[in-house]
Amino acid sequence: MTTAEKRAELLPGGYGRSSFFVGKPPPRAVAGEGYLLRDETGAELIDVHNNFSVLLHGHAHPEITAAAVAAARRGACFGLPNAGELEHAEALLARVPWAQQVRYTNSGTEAVMTAVRVARAVTGRDRIVVLSPAYHGTADPVLVSSAATRGVPAGTLADVLTVAPDDVPGLRATVAEHGSQLAAIVLDLVPARAGNRPLEAGFVAAAQMLAADCGALLVVDEVISFRHGLGGVALSLYDLEPDLLVVGKLIGGGFPVGAVLGRAETMRVLDPAAPDALLHGGTFTANPVTMSAGRAALDLYDEAAVARLEALGARAQERLGAVARAHGWDVVGHGSVVRLAPQADDDAARTRLWWEAYRDGVLLSPSGVLSLSTPMDDGVVDEIAARLDASLERLSG
Ligand code: PMP
Fold first, then answer.
1. Global pTM?
2. Do residue 280 and residue 233 come from a single domain?
3. pLDDT for 278-318, tens place per residue?
4. Active site residue 249
5. Ligand 1: which residue has its CA nearest to atom 12?
6. Does residue 151 share a domain with residue 66?
7. What is the CATH number of the domain that holds 258?
């Protein structure tokens, strides 16, 4: 056994999370700057994975790094609520005018879990509707949406109903049968597992109406899609004001984060002084480093930056689309999130592409998703397309 193989045995399967898996253990990252990433072998790659889209501004952005370092110098975390939390909340809530309050968590998973619990507490009901396929992190109540329910108690599963994306009749039938027991309808408006394409407006409108009619809350998860508009796609694509909005990833500037946003009347159950308050903890919640780095990341992503990145996404969809189709692959996605997909669903082909792209100096997500970052420009997008052309050529050759 080589030293590298022995070291990989320190982690189950050689990995620290199951959501990143490309077969044999991959090289490990050591540093990054802008859109470039260096691995332990010294190879330099264009990073278009960006840690599942978190790194909206690429690696070690000077302003975000300065904000994080300054916060860490003042103290890593405090028991007393910190001032940075309010500064972040001001910037975040300004982008989502219908929401009045925010509660932070340490991940999108925790934020989804908290939103579902709030919905259950507010309605006094247990059941929820989720889309499948979709992905909302790894909290028990939503694992059904990614069809990965091992370890989830049967009692939890019994309270979760699934509907396929854009299946209006299916949603209507589910609400007709179970409406009086429903706490929430949970939507990712651009579900990754369903091809990173926005849901049809008619389906979203039906979900909003059906939730309101039966007294359930509409919970929208924009952990990924928040980047597509100043206040996410709920506002920019659908003019939708849900009951609860879940965000994460980019709002932490690269540090662990999640958040639940809502109107004061809904968020009231999180008020520790409320007689019927639910318990929400988190030793690291709203920690000052995340709050400062996240505030800097949000400030850098103003209306002009959103428009620029979405335009760059359109160029990527076009360039990569041409390359992919020439090799029998498809390109799906929305704006700055692009997915290369084999024409027949094929995990092995996606893994082979991941390794070929790596050889050509492009870091993809294991499922073939590219998330652009603001340090990129037209030239970088064209370079990615040229490199992936070579990767796909070898794959099909
Ligand atoms: N919701 C969505 C839509 C996501 O894409 C993700 C993560 N990719 C999550 C929730 C979970 O977030 P986290 O990985 O921070 O727990």
1. 0.97
2. yes
3. 999 999 999 999 999 999 999 999 999 999 999 999 999 99
4. yes
5. 108
6. yes
7. 3.40.640.10
Amino acid type, 255? F
DSSP track, 275-301: TTPPP---TTTT-HHHHHHHHHHHHHS
Contact 353, 395 (CB under 8 A): yes
Tens digits of residue pLDDT in 204-222:
999 999 999 999 999 999 9
Q: What is the pLDDT of residue 7?
A: 84
Distances (CA, A) of 380 to 34, 315, 376, 384: 12, 11, 6, 6
How many angstroms separate the alpha carbon of residue 132 from the centre of ligand 1? 15
pLDDT tens, residue by residue, 78-114: 999 999 999 999 999 999 999 999 999 999 999 999 9
Shared-domain flag, residues 315 and 343 = yes
Domains in the chain, number:
2
User: How close is the Cα of 386 to the center of ligand 1, in Å?
Assistant: 30
Domain boundary among 254, 278, 300: 300
Which residues constitute the domain of residue 25? 3-56+302-396
343 — pLDDT class (breaks 50, 70, 90): confident
Residue 193 Cα, ligand 1 centroid: separation in angstroms? Answer: 12
Atom of ligand 1 nearest to the CA of 249: 15
Residues 203 and 82 in one domain: yes
What is the CATH classification number for the domain harbouring 316?
A: 3.90.1150.10
Higher pLDDT pick, 346 / 74: 74
Nearest Cα residue to atom 1 of ligand 1 = 136
Note if 24 is an active site residue. no
Evaluate if residue 4 carries a pLDDT over 80. Answer: no
Could you tell me if 267 and 352 lie in one domain? no
Residue 160, beta-bridge partner list: 128
d(CA 61, CA 26): 25
Closest protein CA for atom 13 of ligand 1: 108
Give me the helix-helix angle, 347-359 and 378-396, nearest 10°. 120
42 plus 88 within the same structural domain: no
Which residues, in sequence order, are CB contacts of 109 under 8 Å at separation 6+?
136, 137, 138, 139, 258
Ligand 1 pocket, CB under 6 A: 52, 107-109, 112, 135-137, 188, 192, 221, 223-224, 248, 258
Q: Quick one: 43 and 76 in the same domain? A: no
Active site residue 135: yes
Atom 7, ligand 1: which residue's CA is nearest? 137
Dist CA 237 CA 221 (whole Å): 14
Catalytic residue among 104, 135, 301, 358: 135
Ligand 1 centroid distance, CA of 260 (Å): 13
